[in-house]
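Feature request, filed as a ticket because there's no other form

It would be nice if the structure record came with a short human-readable summary line next to the tokens. Right now we just get the raw output. Example of a typical job, pasted below so the devs can see what we mean:
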Amino acid sequence: MKQNFTVRQGALDGVEVFLSVAQHRSFRKAAAELGVTPSAISQTVRVLEARIGAALFTRTTRSVGLTEAGERFLSRAKPAFEELVAASEVARGLGQRPAGLLRLSVPRAIVPILLEPLIASFCKAYPDVEVELAASKELVDLAAEGFDAGIRLGQFVAADMVAVPMTPPFRLVVVGSPAYFAGRHQPVNTDALRQHACLRWRRSDGALALWSFNVDGEAIEIAVSGPLIASDFPTMLGAAIEGLGLAQLPEPLAAEGLRTGKLVHVLESYAPVIPGVFLCYPDRRQILPKLRAFIDHVKRQQASISARTPR
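Raw output as currently delivered:
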């Protein structure tokens, strides 16, 4: 059976005053330390004693002492109150400067091509921030899972998220290795893919992703078939380099293989453009400095890349 609970109001009221009086053994000195009048101190102590149901101090005209109840209350309240003060200082520090643990949910595919250089420069710039990268194919609920932010392809950014571009838009490219094309004709149109082994990607929702193309300005999707189904782009990339079949990949991921000749680009005129990669986070009124610092770092990196890109 569900029980009803209420939060007791003012459970800590008067504790700081009690500790100050107990330390100084003086209502007047406690008043001076806390910047209030001795009568206010006395009234606060009386209210605290009434709420607890026991006298905490013995008072004479010459001195202030602790009762047995007061001694026991002091032994438990002092370390607890000091821990609360310390906790407040830690929280205040996190709210005033970039520090603490920054948790990011990221797709595995972008870690080597995008995040490794970005994270390295960020950690050097903000040594008081620890960065945790949780690489997964799942599109987790950032708030529910305790993440500060996530990194997503543009088409997977939820509508209630704030999104900061990390890359310009880029193409999805179809690639294969020279070994795969040995003795085979390269496809000249999308219909020709039926004669080719195509590596497929299973989305986090369990569905097989269709291949996307731009045909005469119209976006189309095609179901393909082949010997391998993978749950991430790096696996597909490796299989394509090994000659297992064709793969459709984000162009930045395939760029190194294309540059070194390990991969060949086909169907270039049909390659669709997707929005790119975004840093996304819940729309909060107050962003902790650690996340604000990372957002600003991402923006500076993007501005630097844009400035170096030929127009």
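Something like this underneath would help us a lot:
The chain has three domains: 15-96, 104-159+280-308, 170-274.
The domain at 104-159+280-308 is CATH 3.40.190.10 (D-Maltodextrin-Binding Protein; domain 2).
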